[in-house]
Structures are given as structure tokens and as C-alpha cells.
Amino acid sequence: FNEIPIEERSQEEVAYVEGWNGKKIEKVQIVPANCKTANFGFDITPSRLITGLITERGICEAKKISILNLFPEKQKI
């Protein structure tokens, strides 16, 4: 499995949670102040099984052109 890319994601994703405090949604740190965290992610789903993607900008086919239509700022000029 050495061909599976390992992504190092934001430490913030594991150091904080968001929740309702009775008045508003609030972000709360759940680890000690100087705690170092690691947040690795990977996906081993074969690409042939992925037909669509759900993003914060909508749903699209799992094709480069469809993704770039949702995220035009990512196009290389």
C-alpha cells in the first residue's frame, strides 16, 4: 500500500470541537494548550467506484472538468 497518499490534515480538526452553548455555536479546544496533535487521512476506495462528489459548493461528477466547474479558481492558467 505504499502507493496510497497519506494526507496530513489540520491539527485543528482534532484539537477543537464546535457545539451549541445555549446561545450560539462555539468552538472549544479539547486538548491541553501546548498539546501537539497529528491528523493523518487517507482513502483506499478504488477510484473506479467513485462516481460523484459532494462538496460545499454542490454535487458533481467525479471528473476533473466537473470539479473545476465548481472550483474555477483552481484552474491553472
What features would you describe in this structure?
By secondary structure, the protein is of the alpha+beta class. The chain folds into two domains: 1-44, no CATH class; 46-77, no CATH class. It is 14% helix and 29% strand. The chain is built from two helices and six strands. It has helices at residues 12-15, 64-70, and strands spanning 7-8, 16-20, 25-29, 40-41, 52-55, 58-61. Strands 1-4 form a two-stranded antiparallel ribbon. The two termini are 34 Å apart. The model has no long low-confidence stretch (mean pLDDT 92).
The Cα radius of gyration reads 17 Å
Main sheet properties: 2 strands, antiparallel
**Low-pLDDT segments:** none
Q: How far is the N terminus from the C terminus?
A: 34 Å
* Global shape: extended
Q: What is the β-strand count?
A: 6
The H/E string reads: EHEEEEEH
Main structural class: alpha+beta
Q: How would you concisely characterize the structure shown here?
A:
With 77 residues, the chain is α+β, with helices and mostly antiparallel strands.
What order do the helices and strands come in, and which of them pair?
Blueprint: E1 7-8, H1 12-15, E2 16-20, E3 25-29, E4 40-41, E5 52-55, E6 58-61, H2 64-70
Antiparallel strand pairs: 1-4, 2-3, 5-6
Name the descriptors:
77 residues, two-stranded antiparallel ribbon, 2 helices, 29% strand, extended
